[in-house]
Amino acid sequence: MERTRSEKHIIRITNLIFLLGTSLFIYGIFRLPLEKADKTGWKICISAALFVYLCLYIRFSKRQEKIDKPKRYKHISSLALMGDDRQILKEWNIYGKTGLLIGKSKGEYQADIDLSFTEDAPFISAQHALLNYCNGHWYVEDAGSKNGLEVQKANQAIAFRLTEKKPLRLERGDIIRINETALLLR
């Protein structure tokens, strides 16, 4: 799991505090026998112990926080066919795949995402679109279909019409539209 920049910064600071506290603690212990009458050694020793305790508390509370938080993955792991009411009708697991054909299984063509059972099947080509995974991202491109396809980005209300052989990078929450058929990337 990759840490964010702020998490790395917090870890560095807590490591420095821990190192400083431990050094002061050791210094205080070795200074005590030399200056029995001086209470400075005890003060250094106690403050160093508090530093060490604070550092350990911060470090382990952050770790526990990470364990307790549910993980939110940014990567796309499935493709879901949505109905008119945005209800999921069917879902395909695409995690670990590198290339998928969206279309209709017909004769020699076997589509990975088979939409031959949908209401819009007459408007969907056997090889309608291609989903490709490259450098950590999914891309979609029109595979020379008759009716084309559109992509509605997750953060926008309008859909972009794709041209043939021009891939578009996809993000989690984007919707691929083939006529009225909607495929949500999850």
Automatic annotation (TrEMBL):
Taxonomic placement: Bacteria, Bacillati, Bacillota, Clostridia, Lachnospirales
InterPro entries: FHA_dom, SMAD_FHA_dom_sf
Protein name stated in the entry: Uncharacterized protein
Pfam families assigned to the protein according to its UniProt record, in alphabetical order: FHA
